[in-house]
What we know:
Elements: E1 2-5, H1 11-23, E2 27-32, E3 37-42, H2 51-54, E4 59-63, E5 83-85, E6 88-90, E7 94-100, H3 107-119, E8 124-126, H4 144-157, E9 161-164, H5 168-177, E10 180-183, H6 191-199, E11 204-207, H7 214-226, E12 232-236, H8 255-262, E13 267-269, H9 271-275, H10 278-290, E14 295-299, H11 317-333, E15 337-338, H12 343-346
Parallel strand pairs: 7-8, 7-14, 7-15, 8-9, 9-10, 10-11, 11-12, 12-13
Antiparallel strand pairs: 1-3, 1-4, 2-3, 5-6
Bound molecules: phosphoenolpyruvate and manganese (II) ion (MN).
Phosphoenolpyruvate binds next to loops.
Amino acid sequence: MLIIFKKDHAETQLQKIVAEVQRRGCQALVVRGLFRVTINVIGNDARWSADDFKKFEGVENVVAVTRPYILPGRDFQSEDSEITVNGVTFGGTRLVVIAGPCAVESEEQTLRIALAVQRAGADVLRGGAYKPRTSVFSFQGLAEEGLRILKKASEKTGLPVVTEAMDPAGLEAVNEYADIIQIGSRNMQNFDLLRQAGKLRKPVLLKRGMSASIDEWLQAAEYIMNGGNEKVILCERGIRSFDSQHTRNVLDLAAVPVLQRLSHLPVIVDPSHATGRRELVESMALASLGAGAQGIMLDVHDEPEKALCDGAQALHPRALLDLMWKLKRIASGLGKEMSGPSAIRTQPV
Ligand code: PEP
Ligand code: MN
């Protein structure tokens, strides 16, 4: 961190900050330049931020040099993290496909779709039991009953399950039934929830807040990791912008390589929630792999017109299968592995 002093600062103001920097366990290197005096703060491990020093008299500006997070960063761990759950590995060169309905609506609906996504070669089943809905009048999810249905679907298909927890109470239930805990966009900065998830040992799929910067997102990951749970998977799902007429959100694909430079955590993309329209999902899924994503999360429904949540962005299982073949071809072109559909059972005729 570099503390830059005002031209007319007093020497006593400078000395006060030198003492403050040392009190915080860091070294203060005073540099008296031609025009400006600065203090180079050495030994800051992200505990102290620019705001800790901006508030002092005599300070003009403070420039952060170290990143505002530690554990998710490449400075802390240079090699890619691999997170394995029930034989499925996120990270490295392996591509993971998560697919399933936006919401668990009934046992029949979930089992049907679970079998369809398994046949298409998905690695993980998704489905929301607790749904964060903008309107209180919309379908809110089946809660614990939904979790029981997901568990059944997981046993029938052998697929691990990811589902969302919205609050610390729901988190306990989700932890009991699910293999991966999802923290959704609206809760990316629910610090209580993040702290609680940090106490668990199941992987957490942390979706990007719809207006979160990349640093804020990694700082949210730090809340979980700081509690002792290092298994965080990041999921880009689009951010809010000014034009929501044609796409639900703006899919920030550049965030994928940016994150991979900054962090060792696996990064996946959800083109369904990013676009909100099924006809856009395929292109964005393919583009996500091109951008280097280590996985994709897709909404799938076999009766999208009847879906109780996000039907417009759900792929029909036929479209999923078609997309899986394309993803598989791209994966192999990129030198990556992917399960995908099996030729014997599902090769299109
Ligand atoms: C979801 O994946 O079901 C969901 C609600 O997504 P997001 O939190 O990204 O809106
Ligand atoms: Mn949804």
